[in-house]
Amino acid sequence: MNLEKRMRDNMGDHSHGSPDDSGTVAKAGTGTLDKFQDPGLPPHRKRLADTDPHAEKRAERQVALLFIISIIGTLSFFIAYFVLGRPENISEIRVQNAMLGLGTTFAMLGIGIGIVHWAKTLMPDHEISEMRHEITPEADRKDAEEIINQVIEETGIKRRPLIRNTLIGAIALAPIPAIFMFRDLDRTGKNAGEMVEQLRHTMWDKDVRLTRDPSGTPIKPSDVQIGSVFHVIPEGLDEAEDVLNEKAKAVVLLMRLDPDKMHISEGREDWHYQGIVAYSKICTHVGCPVALYEQQTHHLLCPCHQSTFDLTRECKVIFGPAGRALPQLPITVDSNGFLVAQSDFHEPVGPSYWERG
After folding, report:
1. What is the C-alpha separation between 55 and 42, in angstroms, rounded?
2. Residues 237 and 315 reside in one and the same domain
């Protein structure tokens, strides 16, 4: 009995209580909740550059070095773009493309990483909290001016001429490559007639044999089966003065269809040979190589922007951004039974973004 009494004294006697008066059930509205206290801002931890003048100078030099790297990247772009000029072989093209890409990369990364490193090591990093309040238009203008002045002061750009000068140089040079590239696009528009004339003529001509790329082996009609695809170049391409440019214009896809499935327009009745057709491999959108052939649907697909051409309807565009059909190369066979061209393309090959007057 004494043990039972002591337990009731310690825990409370609820043997005859109900949920309403036993005290074991919490009820809403019977008490008040304490509000969460504002913990305030965490204590500010000084960085090494805030306490050590040598570390501050080192960080300043690092930021300036990153901006100088940006300047070097831009200059590398200029060298690749202007000094190397027009590369004549694949090795020079690879070097030029690498310099253009790396130059642009370092030009942008140097500025971006430099600004981030500047902010993390040298700019003030104190956290502040401000109450929101109504601002009149005039006060808003004054506050904006104060904020701008405060930002300039906190960056320390006035008292850090090394960072200021290298940043100005990097920012001044960085947009120039884009300006020259856009200028060249404009030049392409002004010389559209000349560009079209260049693309109107390729190495294809009457009786020029169709050969496999890259072996240069001539092709007979019996070699081309329904569903197969040949990447074709004109015979004698290796002897051309400018092999890469000539190949870029003249490369062709050769395929065979069931003649009953072909929809041939007037004037092209003899452009194929027993269902064997040849079309320019250069997409008429932006010049990517059309290289995917769907045997069941007879569709040619450009992998860059998904322009799709219907082979049964003379490679007319059925999907995608391309503006016109792939140019067709008229073909036949010579006296030795090899596939040959009847003539050059009857229209310019390649993209259609300029006027083709």
Report:
1. 24
2. yes
23-65 pLDDT, tens digit each:
555 555 555 555 677 777 788 888 888 889 899 899 999 999 9
Does residue 42 form part of some domain? no
Whole-number Cα distances in Å, 50 to 54, 125, 158: 10, 10, 18
**pTM greater than 0.90:** no
Domain region containing 72: 48-127+136-186
Query: Residue 8 and residue 12: Cα distance in Å, rounded?
Result: 5
Domain check: are 301 and 212 in the same one? yes
